[in-house]
Amino acid sequence: MAYNLLQGKKGIIFGALDEKSIAWKVAQRAREEGAEFVLTNAPLAMRMGEIKKLAEECQAQIIPADATSVEDLTNLFTQSQEILGGKIDFVLHSIGMSPNIRKGKSYGDLNYEWFQKTLDVSALSFHKVMHVAEKLDAMNEWGSILALSYIAAQRVFPDYTDMAQAKAMLESIARSYGQRFAKLKKVRVNTISQSPTKTTAGTGVGGFDAFYDYADKMSPLGNASAEDCANYCLTLFSDLTRMVTMQNLLHDGGFSSVGISEEIVAQMSK
């Protein structure tokens, strides 16, 4: 059901790879709620994914951009304003990648060059996005910038390795740039700490099925789906949350507040 929450708003959505992607669901729902937007992803990710299909469905243009490149981001924000006919109201940063995880490196045996790549792609790119948006004065007042995080920023999860540091940095950048952007343009900046979600990236983490099942048994409401996360993103892009900024917002079915659940007790007692 649509509520016209984003009627007249213009945005940029990073990271829609395929139908499993949270960014993909956000784009579909944003379109239903009246938004116009540009889709973007790194050229390599675009070749691997199905973003053209989403662009056709949402009547959106695609601008390839490497989010670690200030030059690419400058082109992205410049072209997006030309295409959309004005400044930007919302940005979704749904980007994360760890070469160490892809190569199966344990936490005690990280490749440090790859570690730096993890931080650059998964966290520092968020700073670069906002840096470029500020320098180009590309954001409308009361705009909303959002990134997707995970509770491994605060807790230890096996096999999540250097992505845990990347998510911690991502959340810190949201706070620091959130203060700056609020003072400059009343733009709000937040992160959503989402339940384990069966995306292409998520399922690439070792032991993901165990992560997912454990969280589902711990959460009173169960794991939040990609569709639920998309709906939450829309509320944060809308005018209904104008005073929410610099927050890491937990969207996890209650997982983060539970010490142990009856389901886990029952399973451990067998």
UniProtKB/TrEMBL annotation:
Binding sites annotated in the UniProt record for NAD(+): 15, 21-22, 95, 167
GO BP: fatty acid biosynthetic process
GO-annotated molecular function: enoyl-[acyl-carrier-protein] reductase (NADH) activity
Substrates-to-products reaction catalysed: a 2,3-saturated acyl-[ACP] + NAD(+) = a (2E)-enoyl-[ACP] + NADH + H(+)
Catalytic activity, EC: 1.3.1.9
Keywords on record: Fatty acid biosynthesis, Fatty acid metabolism, Lipid biosynthesis, Lipid metabolism, NAD, Oxidoreductase
Catalytic residues (positions): 150, 160
UniProt cross-references to Pfam families, sorted A to Z: adh_short_C2
Pathway(s) per entry: Lipid metabolism; fatty acid biosynthesis
InterPro entries reported in the protein's UniProt record: Enoyl-ACP_Rdtase_NADH, NAD(P)-bd_dom_sf, SDR_fam
Enzyme's top EC category: oxidoreductase
Family membership noted in the UniProt record: Belongs to the short-chain dehydrogenases/reductases (SDR) family. FabI subfamily.
Entry protein name: Enoyl-[acyl-carrier-protein] reductase [NADH]
Protein's organism: Adhaeribacter swui
